[in-house]
Structure formats: structure tokens, C-alpha cells
Predict the 3D structure of the following.
Amino acid sequence: MAISAALVKELRERTGAGMMECKKALQAADGDIEAAAETMRREGLAKADKKAGRVAAEGRIASAVSDDKSAAVLVEVNCETDFVGKNEDFVQFADEIAQLVLDKQPADVEALGDIDMGGETVEDKRRALIATLGEKVTVRRFHRVEAASGDGRINVYLHGVRIAAAVAVNGGDDELARDLAMHVAASAPAHLSTEDVPEERRNSEKEVLMAQARDSGKPENIVEKMVEGRLNKFLGEITLLGQPFVKDPDTTVGKLVSDKGAQITDFARLEVGEGIEKKEEDFAAEVRAQAEKTG
């Protein structure tokens, strides 16, 4: 049967699918838009399942801050390509997820998936988006930062869409909070202070430093002092309070906040694709393989 352009347009608006895909679905359903939409939904979910094993290391960091500036969240939402990461539907989904995490405070990503999102769960919305965009989409992780009661304040710094940092400060002013968020984004501290560094990580680094120092052939008492100095340097590099402040490397972040009569109570930093093993593309081999097929 003949399918009108208006019917195709309506189905396209409902599903977000391509024009030809909508037309084919309507033809198969004899013009029944409800049946066509349901078929496309089922096929889309099947496609989403097939994409589950693919690597999604692109995307964006979305953020949301409460009206009273007492809490903020950072959320990493991933896709497979930078192109899809800029797609309007993908961007909207990421922003909605950030606001949902802020409002509903789910315990983890799994709990987030069960939350209602305008009549369907987050998980259903995610899988529908995969069907629309043709790429794997995941909500990988999120962090919530809360300000201390009283004189607490939060600042969120976004470096493009790939890196974001949030810092909660007690005391100080908005400029200090903003500078600290920028520092966290730039320097990627792993812990707030040396006391927060796990004993296992501290001991592991000390063993490496001891082995290196003993190879120098120096006496054991000198080795101990060498290791102590190098370990303190390492701890300073991985802790926010011990790092040199990016805007003034002659002072540490710890001294900066102390001089301002402030205290950092919490922080978070997310970077898109951090820790995800990306597939290495061998373009030369790809060209050779293509040439062999056509040769």
C-alpha cells in the first residue's frame, strides 16, 4: 500500500529512526503506525543487545548542581564515536541523567537503571537511544559531592565535555572554590590528603623505592632517608593538598587553603574514557585487506 509522507514523518518523530527505516516498517505493517512503532522498538532492543560487547570510550561528562549549591554530581555517559557524543539526543540524555542522579540519589549505576524517566526506566531509555543512534551507549559511573553544612560551597569546572571536576570547600570564597575545581581538573589528584592514601598503595610504592635505592649501593641508613624523601614526594604528587597549585607552583594547595582560612571537604574528577582499553586501529592493514579483496 502507498505510505504517505505525513505518516512517515509522524513515525520518525516518535522513534527517532531514519526516514527509509520508518517507511519500510510502515509498509510491513500495512500502514498501522502503532504496529510499526512496536516492531521498530523490538528490533531496536535486539540491536542494542548485539552492541553490548563493543567498546564505548567516547562521550561526555554531564553535571548538575542543586539550587542551593549544597550538592553536585558528575556523570560519565559513553558512546563509541566522538560524532555521536555531539548528537543532540545523546547530549540531552546525558544531561537528564545528571539531573536524575542529583535528584534521586541512586546508590549505583545499577540502581539508576531502574529509576523512572518520563514513563520508562533509565535502562529502557538507554537501550532505545542505542537503537536510534546505532552505537553502544552506557552510563559508566557518577560521583556526588556534598558541601559541609554552614559555610560550605561547591564549584564545578568543566573542561570542554571530556573532563569535569567538583570541589566542596568550607570557608574561603567563590574564587577559591573555582580555582580549586580548575586545579583538580588539570592535576587529577587521586586522594585528598596523605592520610587518605590506602596503606596497600603506600607500601607498594615504598617497596619499589627501596629496591631502587638499594641498587645505588649506598649504606642502609642513607637508603632509608632516600626512600623517606622520595615517598613523601610521591604522596605529594597524588594528593590534592600536597600538589603544587597550578596557578602558583611555589605553593601547595594545602598551604593555599590554609592561608585562606578554608578547608576542602570533598572533591571528584571524571574524564571520558579513563581506564577503558580502546581498540587500536591498524589503518595500513585495513587498506591492505581492502586492496586484496579488490585486487
In short: The two ends are 44 Å apart (CA to CA). The first helix runs from residue 5 to 15. The mean pLDDT is 86.
